[in-house]
Amino acid sequence: MRIRLLVFCLLLGLSFGGCDAKEPASAHRSEDKSAAAPMSEPSGYDRPRESAPEEEARAASAYEAGAERKYDGRPTVVDALNQKAPEKKSPIERMIVYTAMLRLAVHSPLEALAQIEGVVAELGGYVQSSTRTRRVVRVPSARYHEAVRKLKGLGVVRDFSQSSLDVTEEFQDVVARMDNLQALKKRYEELLVAAVNMEERLAIERELRRISTELRILEERRRALSDQAAYATLTIDVEAIAPFVAAIRSPQPFGWVRSYGLASLYQ
Fold first, then answer.
1. Distance of CA 117 to the CA centre of its chain
2. Residue 138 has pLDDT above 50, yes or no
3. Domain boundary among 166, 189, 208
4. Of 47, 77, 94, 189, which sits with the fewest C-beta atoms within 10 Å of its C-beta?
5. 152 and 109, same structural domain?
6. Interval 104-133 mean pLDDT
7. Is residue 238 part of a domain?
């Protein structure tokens, strides 16, 4: 019995000794693993970002490389960003010359002429010329159609005609020719200063006189076109409405006259 108890105690002591020996080994292994862990970055680990100057230098080099490089002949994103938007051209304002002729029948020509002048003044126009039965008036082109409508309402319209002419291209041509002549005149004036003999000076002066004459003619035409386009021209004629006169038949003095076919002599 004692022998069995001794063997049991011996076995129990050996088992506890084995557990104590294993614990330091496992502790050593865990320490080794913890020491080796910093050598490899875990998943989701973020590396330290570069400093701001380094990022700006890298971005600048990439921008320069992209600006110089093309892919398959197509513009890069940098080219698209640097491309300027096309400038919008302002539309050309058309220059239209309006003219009209109006003939009115009225009860009182003098009163109608006064009304015509009042309408024209109200619209910002003026009377260009006048006679006993006619008025030639000018009204701003922007109010031309309004003027026609109001003038027609002053009487009975016997006749009306109107026309419009686009002089935009002619006006632009006149202005372009004037600009060219001005530049040529300036050049001749410089040559006149540098001329060394009388013959050259006389020839240059003749050209300057010719250019000045052409400029004066073109300036008059430019002013005329500008004035005609700014103000419409209307010619209004008035005439009196003839009074209505009923036909009066004279009485026949004798009834027997009708029987002889002589009634027409008394009509």
1. 37
2. yes
3. 166
4. 47
5. yes
6. 96
7. no
